[in-house]
Design goal:
With 803 residues, the protein is an alpha+beta fold. Among the domains are: 311 residues, no CATH class; 149 residues, no CATH class; 45 residues, no CATH class. The chain is 52% helix and 15% strand. The termini are far apart.
Amino acid sequence: MYNNNKRYSKNFPDPLASRETKMSNDYGMKYAKAIENQWGKIQDEQSLYKKRARNFERNRDYANGVQDTNIYKQILTSLDPNNGDGSLVNLDYTPVPILPKFARIVVNKILSRSPYPNLEAIDPISTSAKNAQKQRIMNQVQLKEQLKQVKDMTGGLVLDQDPDSLPDSVEEAEIFLDTNIKTDAEVAGQIATNLTLEWNDFSDNIYRRCIQDLVSCGMAVVKRDNDPNYGIKTSYVDPVKFIHSSTDDPNFSDLVYAGHIRTISIQELKRIAGDELDEDQYKKIAEKSKSHNSDYNKMNQVYYDDTLGRNVYGYEEYMVDVLDFEFISVDCMYFEEKENQYGNTGFFYEGFEYKEKSGKGVYERTPHKMEISSVYGGMLILDCDYLINYGLKSNVPRNMHDVTRARMSYSVVATNLRDSMPKSMVESCIGFADMLQITHLKIQQSIAKAKPDGLIIDIEGLENVQLGKGGELQPLELHDIYEQTGVFYYRSKNAEGGFQGAPIQQIPNSIRNINELITLYNHYLGMIRDTTGINEMMDASTPKGDTLVGVQQQAIAAGNNATYDITNASTILFKQVCQDIVRCLQIIPPDSLLMEIYKNAIGRENMDALSSFSDLPMYNFGVIIKKDMEDQEKVYLEQNIQQSLAQREIDLEDAMAIRSLKDINQAERLLIVRRKKRMKEQQEAAQQNSQMQAQQAQQAQQAASQAEQQRMQLEFQIEQQKMQMKTQMEIQLEEVRHQYRKEIELIRAQATLGFKTDDQDFREKLEVFKETKKDDRVKKQAEEQAKLIDKRKGKQPFDISII
């Protein structure tokens, strides 16, 4: 603790002072007061701090659509503020939420492409190891078929990698080797970095608020703390409360000092300060800050808490403003080159407070110095000038290959920075938003002043209208009849006898200047679009089905170019935070509780590979921020995938592998490689199919030929069998015939030999019979002739029956 009891110069203390002097509280108080004098009191309306705070708060009001409406009331009533017609009293002065819409579009567009860190070790040892591993995999890809044969022969026992898991071609291998070849330290660093971001809820909370600040304020700030209780902690810093040294670098890489105003309770201050302040000093702090707290009665309240075992004071709930600051200063580290008695030369560390030895020694001594950057910091309690926790910052992350440089714990980016003052997208549109709001109010005023449908009444034409016995009607009575019945009575002739027109004419309803005001409203809306670069295609407010694809792409590209400074600043901020986290991971004390927590979270081997380097130099990591594809890129990629699937140029597995990639270039390259691979497979399959068809045709022809030969052989065999059967049948028939002939001959022989005597007798009897018959026939002929003769002679009648 240091109490400011004397006036300090507005200038910064001597930067060339010794390290011991810089570590003193007096030096820290001088530096803190110089910062306060440069930015002014936070309550002073004319201070630099307050001016920038008002600018940022105004931008945030416009970005949220809650800006002050008094300016619109003053402008609308400035012409005649005392004799107004009262139409402005009942207007709705709620701001038109146009700027909030455009701010949300930009914020959501950036957040939709979720960034993630990709760690690459860029030191020579890691680069050589990765190149060797890449070359080894490329050789395995080229020898993939031979490795498969070896796997089939040995069962994969002699191979350290399954050849089936290797890419199929050199082109496909080049795509995956860009991101998939990681050393153990790279894998461990990437896992630990993502885990730290997740523990701090960075992507869902801090990063979103930073993007909103970039859009509305043009600046975003993140602070890193190596908290003994919370580990590596990233916290959001409100740009309104951030102070820094003068710079025109939008990445704030040349800052000399930085800090921010914190509003904390006295109870939290006690936890931070520890024993540096006593209770009387805390009471003085409460006295100074009680004007910021509404409850004055707690100032003198005190009671004993048995749980805490101490007195609890009512003012511990009071909130106080403290300046948490840090600055970079250059210190000289001395070495001495000394020759020993054996003639060898060595370098010996002599510390920061080196004094060259007077006189000449026995051996020659030559001093050398190395300038290194050191970070000092502390907390100044404002309005009380108490300085606590001041000193040399420990656990400062450094580049292991350039230990002379150090970074402060703030990661800051800005857009359109000039004279340390950023200009945001919202600030560029405030004038147009005001005019648009005024135009909107004028439209309301015109509507409020609009008159209903009216009548033009000529009283002269309605006088002395005769209605017979009823007498005359007055103009008001005629008007009542017209309103109630719609019938209108009037006198068509005037007093001179001439004809006159209808004395009542209708006035149609109309809103004065409404079309001009709507045109003016659209004009200022177009001006906001031109300023922000967010056109209709980008926010999809007026999509048209007949719009050409090329026109849409050009409009979206124009919007992306207009918001590139915000997108680029967000990427740089994410990269700075990840770089800080990686360097802090490398310097975690090996025996600390935090190291045990990380070992339990990601594994001991990973943390050992990341932070234990007794034999090798510590890895020098380069952080590359990767982002998901844009929605338009996803649409085009999906269209190509669906077209390739429809034409069967890729498989479903290829589509899943392509969709898993987050980089559009890698995804398109992989799609090309897989399409070529698939088309080659289809050509080979077609060739194999044609070969199979040719073989099948040849086999069918051979089968038909064989069947024809078999048929002919079968027919030949059948013919042979028929001939054999015919021959056998003929032989059998001949045998039967021969047998029959033999039997006939035998019968004939037997008959010839057995009936020879009977035959002679038969012949003799036949001769006798023949002779007898011949005699009978001759005798009968003779008798007949005798009868004929007698008949001719008439001796006997003629017998007709004989005739």
